Amino acid sequence: MKILVVGANGQIGKHLVRFIQESEHEAKAMIRNEAQSSYFTELGAETVVVDLEGDTKEIAKAAEGVDAIVFTAGSGPHTGKDKTIMIDLDGAVKTIEAAKLAGVKRFVMVSSFDTTREAIQEANESFAPYVAAKHYADEWLKATDLDYTIVHPGGLTNDSGTGKVNVAVKVDRGQVPREDVASVIFSSLVDANTIGEEFQVVSGETPVKEAVKSL
């Protein structure tokens, strides 16, 4: 399986590309500029330079010949509401539409921990636009006929992964290393029982493969 990782230069994306390249599968890293390519080249991964704020057709071109797409791009915590809309919402929707244009059915979305209407209303003024963007991106994906999976990670840390998580439709809030989130994404890609599912993930006591298989 060949997998296009959108937002590959992000911290989750880098872990994911590594996991893919260490398996029998193949990653195609979508990055914002050529200067970000060296990490992926060293892993033996193909890279493609595309601006998520550009045209949908450019994303579709990057998706040609792949079997699955993972959207793990994000505007980041230090940008304003404008970038949140342009990357976390519009960028996600354009990637979904690009998947359709390229004929790619499998799509994994990395979302926020809670993207319900209630979460939008309960979020503070600075965080609410992000939750709203993720909410509508998730809803757009669920309204398609793509074979989707939506992953809702808890508070992200840069700790080394433990390889053990707690996943379910609803779990208690908690933290989770980005490396473990990437492992969950990879396991979700290769386990067809996650198609049409969305779930939250935090650190736990269950090995990743076993946790994902239990969904």
From TrEMBL:
InterPro entries: NAD(P)-bd_dom, NAD(P)-bd_dom_sf. It holds the Pfam family NAD_binding_10. Residues 7-190 form the NAD(P)-binding domain. It comes from the Bacteria. This is SDR family oxidoreductase. It comes from Aquibacillus salsiterrae.
